Structure formats: C-alpha cells, structure tokens
Amino acid sequence: MKTLLRGGSVVSGRGTARLDVLLEGERIAAVGENLPAGDAQAVDCAGRLLFPGFIDAHTHFDLEVAGTITADDFASGSRAALRGGTTTVIDFAAPDKGESLASGLARWRRKAEGRCACDYGFHMTIDDWNEDVSREVGEMMDQGLTSFKMYMTYPAMMLPEGDMFRALVRLREAGGLVGVHCENHGVIQALTAQAWAEGRLSPASHPRTRPAELEAEAVGSLLRLAQVADVPVVIVHLTSRAALEEVRAARKRGQRVYAETCPQYLLLEAGRYDHPAYAEAAKYVCAPPLRRQEDQEALWAALRDGEIDTVATDHCSFTTAQKRAGQYDFTKIPGGLPGVEHRGLLLYSAGVAAGRITAADMCRVLCENPARLYGCWPRKGTIAPGGDGDIVVIDPTAEGVIRAADQLQRADYTPYEGMAVRGAVERVYLRGRLAAERGAVYPGEGVFLARGRSEDYRR
Ligand code: DUC
Ligand code: ZN
C-alpha cells in the first residue's frame, strides 16, 4: 500500500517545511518537494501540520493498584491513544515484590499482545533488589527493555536508599536508563498521620500532604545518588518550579538528567482539590498532585527553553465510582488521571496555538526526545525515509470542546471537561496504515517494540 501525503507542513524539532511524504508498506519511503504520486493514493494535506506519530512514554494500562484495576486496559487505552495521535506507548511492566522481572514481563506482554492497537514497549519496574534482579537487568536489556522505573514512595514498590543506589550502579554497568518517581515518602507519611489525627480526611488534604518541597527534596536526593553512581536518570512527572531547580543544579554539575512533565501539571491547578463536592475533587487525585499557577508557568518556560525533555501522560484512569473508595479517607482514593486521548491536542491548543511553544518544541517533547531517550530513534519520532510510517495530521483551523461523552478512554470523566481547544487530530497513520480518522479508530494491531539504548542527545 502506498499513500502520498501532499503539501502539508512537515514538523521536526528544527521547524516546519512544506513537503510531501510518501508512505510505502509500513515505512516512510520518501520526503521531498513535489513527489510524483505514481500508483500511490494521494491525500491533500494543504494547510495541515504533519507530525511524527506521538510517543507517550508513561502510561499505566491494565494495572492493579489500590485494590482495584485501571479503567483502561491495553485495548481501550491504545485506541484512545491512536485517536489522539499517539502511535507508540511505553507502559510499565510491574512485577510484584519477590516476582522475577521475566515473570512480570511475561504478564505484561500477555496483557498487551493481540489487544494493543498502537505500537508498544515496556519499561521494567525495579521494586526489589537482589542478585537475581541484578542479573535480570542484563536480560531485560537484551529483550529490548532498556529503561527501568523506581519509586521513592508507595510501600508496595519503593526501594530502600541503599538498594536504589545498588540498582543505579548496576544500570550504569548495563547501559540502562531509569525513570524515578520522586516524593519523600517518610515526610508524606508524617503529614498524612497529622491529617488523620486532625480529622482532615477530604481530598483537600491530598496536596497538603504531598507538597512540592517534598518532591524537590526527593529529586535533589535522587540526583545526588545518581551523581555518585555516575548514571543518567529521568525525573518522571516533574510538577514544580522547586523540583526543576534541583534538575538545573545537577545539570550544572555536569550530570545527565532528563525531565518529563504531563499536561495535568501544565494546565490544572491544585485548587481543584478544594471543591466542596467529594466526587469533583477526587477526580484530580494523582501523585504528585496538581500544583500552583506559578509552577505551571515555570513548566511552560522550561518546555520552551528545552529544560523539560518530554511530555507524557502518566495515564492511569479510574472511573468516578472507583474514586469513591476514598470518600471517608483521601489516602484511599486510587491515584491517577486519564489523559492518553487528549495529550497531543492539549499541547497543540494550549501550547502552540496559544503561542507558548512552537510546533518544533511540540515535536521535540512528544516525538523526537522520547524516541531518542527511549531507544527507538530514528524508527520512531521523525518523518524521514526509512522510519515507520507513523504520521499525525493536524488541522490547525479546527475548534472543539473536550468532553468525556465523546471520548474512547474508559474513565467516565476527563479532567479537561468543557475545555475549548484549537486544532484537531484529523488523521493518524500507524506504520503506513490509516489507523484513525476524525475520531474513528480503525481495527488494527500494534507491535511490541524492542528498544535499543538511550541516546545522549543532551551532550
Ligand atoms: N501516580 C499516579 O497518580 N498514578 C499512577 C502512578 C503514579 O505515579
Ligand atoms: Zn506513573
């Protein structure tokens, strides 16, 4: 099958250029001016922006957590992803403590295989440290899981500091990259105990027990461990100006540090937790929590200046019925927000159309940087001959309103309900095939992406 996308503005991290793109089979065959259509089906893309397929390197589909299971599995989550222009997700395989990494990976592959409509890879969660896990790190690298995840909070997953350090040293030897959830667990526990003792049990206590300073403290501490271990790290879901300052300080010391943020931290404020109706406030519970407007401004500026590398979603969806679990105790609210469907549109509308970032910036944080960072460049993340035919066609003139009633992701709400947006994802190609068009997602299957090593594009 051949398709010629004609006359669109092709976006890269360097800018935009009016070019034709020829898709042949699963690949991009040619990019250039006035390409002959030959036997290809020509599609008029005049006035449209063509981005490389978006990569969401932070999703949690089909995850058992907080006594429940996420509303989206790989089938619904990936269809929602495709509809929003995301052609690749990197989810987190999460073995139980005591389970081997191989067994955890096999479970996650079973969850995705034959169900995931977009392409997918996995990061491997390290929630235990011993000789077996250390050996398995090498085996995971060989199987295309070249990135890992560690938690500094959540008792079910966090590692003691000494083990975290041992793991960092091992990852340096193996050439792996690790993303870390940074929040100071001990102090969060102390603040939570205080809230319980004082009977402050509503969602309003959620951000008050997880302040930005405790995120920054954990980021600073992790970065010092990484400095001694001499290993690159990614700060996942960075939310605040204070945490950003820790990243800057480490980079000044010469460390290789990457930062990810998410649309919820760019667009939504902590005031949402103060809504008097429990159900409304609980919708926004995620960790780290939403922050203040000045943090949002710092994050936008950091995106513009290239200090933040990627925007992912941390998509971890629960319905409002599931969120009810914390009605009498905010710590029982399953944490996480839906977002995989709307990330590209949100970043286009609130970022590019609003003049906060350029289309090239958007391409860097949704396409190029995640592809390089997570070892799938140049197969993914760029519109260039030889790469996978993953293309997002955006109509910049369209206008719309985000509504849960219209979405494919299975949560019965969206944190962005009623938000007016500029732009629309008109068509999405996955490996050369039209996978989504004006909201309709066509049947098709994603493939498992065995990834290579992280590329140090910051040097
Ligand atoms: N934070 C959430 O809110 N949910 C999933 C995992 C995480 O880190
Ligand atoms: Zn997460």
Average pLDDT figure: 98
Tell me how many strands there are.
19
* Helix count from the secondary structure assignment: 14
| Largest sheet features | 9 strands, mixed
Secondary-structure content class = alpha/beta
Quote the distance from N terminus to C terminus.
39 Å
How much helix is in the residues?
25-40%
Overall radius of gyration = 21 Å
Which ions, cofactors or small ligands are bound in this entry? dihydropyrimidine-2,4(1H,3H)-dione, zinc ion
Strand content: 15-25%
Overall, the morphology is globular
Q: What are the segments in which pLDDT stays under 50 over at least 5 consecutive residues? A: none
Walk me through what this model shows.
With 459 residues, the protein is of the alpha/beta class. 32% of the residues lie in helices and 24% in strands. The protein contains 14 helices and 19 strands. Strands 1, 2, 3, 4, 5, 16, 17, 18 and 19 form a nine-stranded mixed β-sheet that branches. Strands 6-9-10-11-12-13-14-15 form an eight-stranded parallel β-sheet. A two-stranded antiparallel ribbon has the order 7-8. Helix 3 (131-142) links the parallel strand 10 (119-125) and strand 11 (147-151). The radius of gyration is 21 Å and the shape is globular. Bound molecules: dihydropyrimidine-2,4(1H,3H)-dione (DUC) and zinc ion. Zinc ion binds at residues 58, 60, 314, 316.
Fill in the keyword field for this structure.
459 residues, alpha/beta, 14 helices
List the helices and strands and how they pair.
Elements: E1 2-12, E2 15-24, E3 27-32, E4 41-44, E5 49-52, E6 54-59, E7 64-65, E8 68-69, H1 74-83, E9 86-93, H2 101-112, E10 119-125, H3 131-142, E11 147-151, H4 161-174, E12 177-181, H5 185-197, H6 205-208, H7 212-229, E13 233-235, H8 241-252, E14 257-261, H9 263-267, H10 278-282, H11 293-304, E15 310-311, H12 320-323, H13 343-353, H14 359-373, E16 391-401, E17 420-430, E18 433-437, E19 440-441
Parallel strand pairs: 1-4, 1-5, 6-9, 9-10, 10-11, 11-12, 12-13, 13-14, 14-15
Antiparallel strand pairs: 1-2, 2-3, 5-16, 7-8, 16-17, 17-18, 18-19
Helix pairs in contact: 3-4, 7-8
